[in-house]
Write a structure and sequence with these properties.
This is Zinc-dependent alcohol dehydrogenase family protein. The protein is α/β, with parallel strands linked by helices. Helix content is 25%, strand content 23%. Helix 3 packs across helix 4 (178-187).
Length: 346
């Protein structure tokens, strides 16, 4: 089969590799029908995730058709159409028993495209398949579902829920890429008074308005003043960091009001300064985290019921064989206007 193989920082190749095989009775093999590219994949290529070694097949978001299952798999059968979660779970360890699947000690957590081969390929092996997949109903299309593999639950859990968004809040989302847009979309579920999006690209600010941002601002607009003017000088109740750069995290810390929440979603490859000399007295809560995907069933129900409209998130479509071109488009959103790209089996 063909797959996208990481060959070291800045290097990747769509090339022939051996077909995946069941190596554990809890495995399933899927034919990949739709996959996508994540900002985390770009961080890997940038050298920000050194745990990923050359030779690894990238990708952790896919919808596929089951073609084979191990003897211990009880919930899946060949022919089932499934969403492959970005997080795998053993279901038995200390963290899984607390629904903290991202920290799984039993061989799960974020492993696809990280510690085991991923899903940017024609076929993929899914470890711990019973608890790491979701069967899809016919009314949910592949492109809508694939957005629930990672970015929707990540934004919802690590951003909105960890930030404790509640009715009447002022919510600031720094970074209006796909993760930030998903944070805006899911924050609206809680009826905030204002959602403010901050980004450097006008195209992404326009997208933020389409996804429900009430106010948008660029760094040139003095975000601190924008937020103060909308909150009587208090600052935001919740600030969500959705970029992963030191300067964006440090900006977020200036926008939060006393007793507020700063929820970091972004993947950071460099140190950021935490000004505790200013924050210690303000009763600010700062959270970080890897998604657990405990919310995926609820998000699928909302998607099926028409409560979430993820369609506008996909801006570009490619055949799976054109994945290298898709990376070029996704990695240059200022030129391409790309949000999420869908890669479909030909």
């Amino acid at each position: 089969m063909k797959a996208l193989v990481y060959e070291g920082p800045g290097k990747k190749t769509w090339t022939e590799v051996p077909d995946p095989a069941i190596t554990d009775p809890r495995d399933a093999i899927i034919q990949v029908d739709t996959t996508t590219i994540c900002g985390t994949d770009l961080h890997i290529l940038g050298g920000d995730v050194p745990e990923v070694k050359p030779g690894r097949i990238l990708g952790h978001e896919a919808v596929g058709t089951v073609v084979d299952v191990g003897d211990a798999v009880t919930e899946l059968r060949p022919g089932d159409r499934v969403l492959a979660s970005c997080i795998s779970a053993c279901g038995r360890c200390h963290y899984c028993r607390r629904a903290r699947y991202g920290q799984c000690l039993g061989g799960g957590g974020w492993i696809l495209g990280h510690r085991v081969d991923g899903v940017q390929a024609q076929y993929a092996r899914l470890p711990l398949a019973d608890l790491s997949t979701h069967r899809l109903t016919p009314e949910i299309g592949d492109e809508a579902a694939v957005l629930l593999a990672d970015i929707l639950p990540t934004s919802y859990e690590v951003g909105v829920l960890a930030g404790r968004v509640k009715p009447g809040d002022t919510v600031v989302v720094v970074g209006a890429g796909p993760i930030g847009l998903a944070a805006i979309l899911t924050a609206r579920l809680y009826s905030p008074a204002n959602v403010i999006a901050i980004d450097t690209a006008e195209a992404r600010l326009q997208a933020a308005r389409r996804f429900g941002a009430d106010v948008t601002a660029s760094p040139e607009d003095d975000p601190s003043e924008v937020v103060r003017s909308l909150t009587g000088g208090f600052g935001a109740d919740v600030v969500i960091e959705a970029v992963g750069l030191p300067e964006t995290f440090e900006l977020c810390a200036t926008l939060i009001r006393p007793c507020g929440h700063l929820a970091n979603i972004g993947v950071h490859g460099r140190s950021a300064t935490l000004h505790l000399e200013e924050l210690w007295i303000r009763d600010v809560t700062i959270t970080t985290g890897l998604v657990d995907t405990f919310s995926t069933p609820d998000l699928l129900t909302m998607l099926s019921g028409g409560r979430l409209d993820t369609g506008p998130m996909i801006t570009h479509r490619f055949a799976l064989d054109d994945i290298e071109q898709a990376y070029e488009v996704f990695a240059d959103p200022a030129r391409s206007g790309a949000l999420k790209v869908a890669l479909n089996r030909s």
